[in-house]
Structures are given as C-alpha cells and as structure tokens.
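One such shown below:
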Amino acid sequence: MERINQRNSMAVLFIMLLQILIMVLVFDFRPYIPLFIGDIWVSLLLLKLGIGFKDIIHMMIEGIKKALTVIAILLLIGTLTAFWRQNGILATLITYGFEIINPRYFVPTSFILVSIISMVLGSAIGTSGTVGIVLMGISQGLDVPKNLVAGSLISGAFLGDRSSPLAGNISLLAGMTDERPDRVFRFLMTTAIPAFILVGFIYFLTGFQYSSSGFNANSSLLILDGLKNGFIISPWLFIPPALIIGLALLRVPTLKNLTLGVIISFTISLIEGKRFFETLRTAVFGFVSSNPDLKIFSGGGLLSMGEVTLVLLTATSLSGMLEGTGIISLAFKDIVGKINRPRPLIVFTMLLSFIISLITCNQALGVILTSSIMRPEYDRLHVDRIYLARGLADSCIVLAGIIPWNMAAYTPSMILGVPVTGFMPYSFFNLLLPLVSIASLYLPAKSEVKFYTSSV
C-alpha cells in the first residue's frame, strides 16, 4: 500500500491544474468535462494509494453537500428569469431603464449601483440575480459591449462579496484568523477604497468611450417599439423585482425570497392570460420570443442552469476528495516553512490562496485551506493575523470571481448570460485589487515593525 506524501500530492495538484487550464483555456472545453475527468482519475489514484472506496465516496458526497443550496438558488433564478421574460417584467424594467439611465454613463453608473447593492446584500450571487439581471437587460438595448457591462457588474458584486459587513466571507475570514469581524472589516477598507476609486475612474473612461461613440438611438428605439408591441409594459410590474430586493435587504433567506418571487411571477403570467401548461413549459425550457428582433430576450428556465449544475457537482466532489485527503496541505508544507519575512509571507499567502482556488474551484476552500496552512507561519514570525485576513480577501475571494471553472465565477456567469472568459478582462476590481494590496505593503514605504503583533 502506498502513502499520500508531499511528492505525489504536488503531482496530483500540478496535473489537475494543467489539465483544467489546457482543456478550458486552450481547447475551450466546458469546465465540467476536465473536472469530471479529474474526479475519475483522482478517485482511481486514491484507491491505488490505499484509500477505501467507501471513504472516497463519502468525501465526494461531503463536497457535493456544499453545493446543494447554490444549485437550488440557481434553479429558482432560472425559473424566475423565464417568467420575467414571458410576462413583461424584464421588458418593463428595460423600457423604464432607458428613460432613467443616461447611456453615455451606463457602465460607471452600473458599477456604482451594483457596488452599493452588493455592500447591502453581501453576496455576489444575490446581487447578480437581482439588480444584475435588470442592468444586463437594459444594456441589451444599448450599443455597449455586454462583456464590458458584465465586467462592471462582477466588479461591483465582488466589492460587497468581499467587503460587506453582512457578507459571509467577513465572518469566515474573522473565524479562520481569530479576529473580530469589525476589525477585519475596517482593515479590508484600507485596500478596497483606493481600488474602488481607481476602478470607478477606469469604468468612467472606458464606458464613456464605448457609449458616447457607439450609442445608436435608432437601434434602441426599434427595440423599445418591439418591447411595447410584444409585452405588457406597466409600472405595476416593478413590484416583483422590488419585493425581491426589499426582502433581501431585510435579510430574508435567499431560498425563501426567490421561491416567493417565482410564485408571484407565475401568478402574474396566469393573470395576463398565459396558459397554465404554456407557463410551466416556460419554467422548464425558458421563454422563446416569436419576434425575430427580440430574440435577445429569449432564455431562462430550469434547463438553462443544467451546465452550471454539472460544474458545481463535479467541482465540489473533486474538492471534497482533495480536502478530505489533506493533499493540498501536504503539497505546500515545506515551502511555507522557508519564508522568514513578513512581506514575502503575505504575498505568498495571496499566491497560495489563488492556486487553491484554481484547483478546488471553490472560494470558501481557498480561505479555509490557505488559512489552515499559513496561520502557524504567521504565528511563527509573530506577524499580525489581520494581514492574513486581508491577504485572503484581496486574493482568492475576488480572484475566484474570474476563474472560469470556479463556482464563484461560473454561477454569476450563467445568471448574467456572459461567459467568464468574456467578462474577465473587464472585471477591473477583481484584477486590480490584488495589485493594490501588494503595493500597499511597499508604497509608501512601510516599516517592517508595523507587520508584527504588539507582543514582538
């Protein structure tokens, strides 16, 4: 019987990461394909290394359990958006949105609005599934690239996902570093605020460039006419999305909130005269517009979430095996022990958490596994753990949002209807925050003493 050691742990992680990168980025495979292949060969390898079959299945099931709530939310969002397309809710939001939002400032306005909502909700998925859907719908009538719009939405959504005092990630960071949540929140702001200002300025320049030169009033009028002729447009249809956002602000659980939204939207479709079985079919297969000019408004439905469900199942079962066997901790054990200065320790923390997010396809595991590996090293060097918390927040939590096969990115991608590789280059907050964080360690020059705990 062979044992799991550092050498074969490193080999497993390297091969897994290389396989995913090549198949997804080079050959454009759907992420669930390399993940499923990884599930197979990693489980076979573990059998060879002496791990029992029942233990492997147990680890996979434990990993999958972490995705069940997210899958349920996605299925509800798929159903909800199908009804919104069918009964005119989305058409109403888009029609009135044209009158409120200046298309020349649409991109920076979207970034700021989503940032505010995400700081209140504390969830990138919740923000994408509410105001994100609305803004993407409005953008379809403007000549602004959808990848750019989605990038601004992802940036704003992950500001709150990382920084909101109501976000689960703040509690996770505080728990894994034994810090007070309020101290973690305040310290995260030291990099979030300058990054937010920088990114907002970039979206202003980039968005103005596209919308001021490319806005086509005639095209937008044609779309508006089509919406008014093809759907019921009424201010009363603002009630369902407003209710969902309002209940989210009141901290009503997402599952209950979206379930209520689906019931109300289904009822609205029936009141408008849609046939019962036609509406059920829309819930499953999505809405299909009969107007060729409005094909962009077709979509939604339970089946539209099938692919992301496969990604979630294959990713979490794989991460369950990697976490359960301790492969990740073993792989990096010797490397971290050679670091003896605060700045390299913090930078390596950020790099390691990113690598773990690449491999495990899970945002939370990037925090949990990295902190379990690095926390003893911070204590060994007497470095304040608040830097561990911020390093994790500024790396894996935001970078997970632009990794094509990570749940944190793939889920909003399916909600917004834009591939991760499409919005990745425009998700400036996710891309620039790690650089701002690293720069803060060196610029302006910071005394080495400031990194240490008061006991040193």
In short: DSSP finds 23 helices and no strands in the chain. The longest helix spans residues 181-214. The CA atoms of residues 114 and 131 lie 7 Å apart. Residues 68-305 form one domain.
